[in-house]
Design a protein that fits this description.
Length: 313
């Protein structure tokens, strides 16, 4: 059958493009390939192998970019990705809790799938270890998608026949569906960014407050993994574990100025925590515009996380 002639290159190319960041849905491709390979064991085995290889090969450039450029590449990923910027924080948390094992399930978690490879590189996960876990995760996705195609091959065949009868209209329909998918992801990102709209404080304003002796409470809401990579902090800042946020807030007066900073694109984590604090009665709370990178770029004083910790007042 002619379709057998192009299922493998289409599957490989589509999954490779997906991992490189082009918004091509991976699971529909795998399901289609599984349905085409029904009853053809050699074709099924080749589809599984190529899907696994494509999934891993597409992640390697992101991994090595993370190794070379660290968190700078994560900011680039968030700017070009359709996933919310908060996925960086979610992926950091997953790495803290599960280590390299989270790569096994990353492909089943939209957003985290995009951020995981460069973050693994930024966290200096050994290349061999990354390759083993990432390939295993790619194989799991390939197996799951192909298995669904086998299970529903009848329905997939029926759908493909209907599309064949539509001729050029089928291409228009598929293009519309892909456009709708991309539009939906853009809408998700737009809603997320809109939810983060809250007043910021500039690094100069914060520095002026500190110089005047106003003693604002400065909270570092970066993840523990991020602080291990970047030991810098704003003088007097207190690292906050978001899982124990209430304990930290119990030590802070609601009448104090509270400034939160992170290293996320759009100050995503700091803005989300600021919204949580406002819901708890804190009115004078603002994220730091540009985060710690803006503070460093302004040439302001930084200290090491290993220095004596300033008590909260």
């Amino acid at each position: 059958m002619v379709v057998h002639d192009y299922v493998l290159p289409t599957l490989f190319g589509g999954l490779l493009a997906h991992q490189l960041g082009i918004p091509i849905p991976a699971f529909p491709l795998l399901i289609w390939a599984g349905a085409v390979a029904f009853g053809d064991t050699p074709l099924l085995a080749q589809a599984f192998l190529l899907a696994t290889v494509a999934g891993t090969a597409g992640n390697l450039p992101w991994y090595f970019a993370g190794r070379r450029y660290g968190y700078r590449i994560l900011k680039l990923v968030c700017r070009v990705s359709l996933s919310p910027d908060s996925c960086v924080r979610q992926t950091e948390t997953a790495f803290e809790r599960r280590g390299a094992a989270m790569l096994l399930v990353a492909r089943f978690l939209p957003g985290i799938e995009t951020v995981a490879p460069p973050l693994a590189g930024a966290l200096s996960l050994p290349a061999g270890r990354f390759l083993v876990y990432d390939a295993a995760g790619s194989a799991l996705r390939a197996g799951a998608g192909l298995a669904l195609g086998l299970a529903f091959h009848g329905q997939v065949d029926w759908l493909m026949q209907r599309l064949a009868t539509l001729g050029t209209n089928a291409a228009i329909l598929l293009g519309a569906l892909l456009g709708a998918y991309v539009g939906y992801r853009f809408a998700q990102r737009w809603r997320f960014l809109r939810s983060l709209k809250t007043a910021r404080i500039s690094v100069r304003e914060l520095n002026d407050m500190m110089s005047r002796g106003e003693e604002p409470v400065v909270l570092d809401v970066r993840s523990a993994a991020h602080r291990r990579l970047d030991a810098r902090r704003i003088p007097g800042a207190r690292a906050v574990d978001l899982d124990a946020l209430e304990r930290t807030l119990a030590e802070v007066s609601r009448e104090r100025d509270v400034v939160l900073y992170c290293a996320c694109p759009n100050e995503a984590t700091a803005a989300k925590v600021a919204l949580q604090l406002r819901a708890r009665g804190f009115r004078r709370v603002r994220p730091l515009s540009g985060g710690i990178d803006a503070w460093a770029s302004a040439g302001l004083v930084l200290e090491s996380v290993d220095d004596a910790r300033a008590p909260l007042a």
